[in-house]
Amino acid sequence: MIAVLAGGIGAAKFLRGLTNAELDEEIVVVVNTGDDWWHYGLRICPDLDTVTYTLADMVNPATGWGVRDESFMARATLELLGDDPWFTLGDRDLGLHMYRTQQLYSGESLTAITSQIARRLNLPASLLPMTDDEVATKVLVQINAEDGGDQIIELDFQEYFVRYHHQPRVLRVRYDGIEAARPTNAVREALSNARRIIIAPSNPILSIGPIIALSGIREQLAERAINGDVVAISPIIGGEAVKGPLAAMLDSLMTQHDARTVAGLYSDVASEFVIDTVDEILTDSIESMGFGVRVTQTLMQDLASATDLARFVVANA
Length: 317
Ligand code: FO1
Ligand code: CA
Known about the structure:
Layout (H helix, E strand, L loop, with lengths): L1 E5 L2 H12 L6 E5 L5 E3 L2 E3 L1 H10 L17 H8 L10 H15 L4 H11 L5 E4 L6 E9 L5 E7 H7 L5 E8 L8 H9 L2 E4 L4 H10 L3 H10 L3 E4 L2 E2 L2 E2 L4 H9 L4 H7 L6 E5 L6 H5 L4 E5 L6 H12 L3
Parallel strand pairs: 1-2, 1-9, 2-5, 9-10, 10-13, 13-14
Antiparallel strand pairs: 3-4, 6-7, 6-8, 11-12
The structure holds ligand FO1 and calcium ion (CA).
C-alpha cells in the first residue's frame, strides 16, 4: 500500500496520475482538512472535494475545483436576494455538501462519510480526512488601504484565498483547533502500514502543514523517514509555484522561495526530495540537508505527464 499526504489541486493531479499508472497496489490518501469551513450552514471540505471530483473524473477542468458542466441557479437566487456569494457553490456541488452535512448531523464521522462518497463515486483510491475534529487554518494578513493606513487582520482561509484572491501579504499562518484535534486511527494505521509515503506537490504550509502538525504525525513520519520510506515532491519549479500563493507566502514568511525552502520544511519528515529538471542545480544544496535528491520533469500538464511523474516517484531510487 502507498500512502499519499495531499492538499487540493496539485495533489489531485498527481493522484490522477498515480491511479492511472495501474500499479496494482492500494492507494490511501490522507487529505488536509484545515481549509474546511461552515458556509450557508453547510460543511465544505475543499481539498476532499477537489481530490474526490478529480478522481471521479467529474472535476471542472477550467478551474481544477468544482464540478464540470455545472449550473449556478442557487447562486443566482442568492444574488436576487441581495447576498454577495463570493464563494461559489454550483448546483451539483451543493448536493455533495448537503449530503455530507446531513450525515454529519446524523452522527456519522467525516471519515465514514468520505469513504461512503468515495465508494458511491467509484474512486480508485481510499480517501481519509486527516482528522474527524474541526481544524481551521487562519491567515494573519496585512491589507494596504488606499488612504495609506495598513490594516492587520486574521482571515478564515477561504476568505484569504477566495474573497481576497490570496493577494494580501501573509504575516502568519496558524491552525485553529490543532492541539485538541487527533489524527484518526485510519490515518495512523495508513502511515505505519504503507510501503512508501509520498508527500504530494502541495503547499507545505497551507496543505501539508496541518497534517504534519497533528499530534504524533511528525514523529511517525520522522521514524519512517529514517528508514528511507518518505518521498516529497517539490511544489516549487524554478522558484515559482505552479499555482496559488506559495511563492509569495514563502517569501514573506521565510524570505526566500525556491525548492530548497520547501525541502527545509520537510528535513525531518522526508528522506527523499524530488525536484524539477530546471532546479537540478539545487541538488548538492538539498543533499547537504540530508535528502536523497531525484530529478525529473514535475510539471503535470496532462494525464500523461502526471502518470510519468507518479511512476518515477514510486519507483525505488
Ligand atoms: N475557489 C475559488 O477560487 N473560488 C471559489 O468560489 C471556490 C469555491 C469552492 C467551493 C467548493 C470547493 O470544494 C472549493 C472551492 N474553491 C473555490 C476552491 C478552493 O477553496 C481552493 O482551491 C482551495 O481551498 C485551495 O487549495
Ligand atoms: Ca487547499
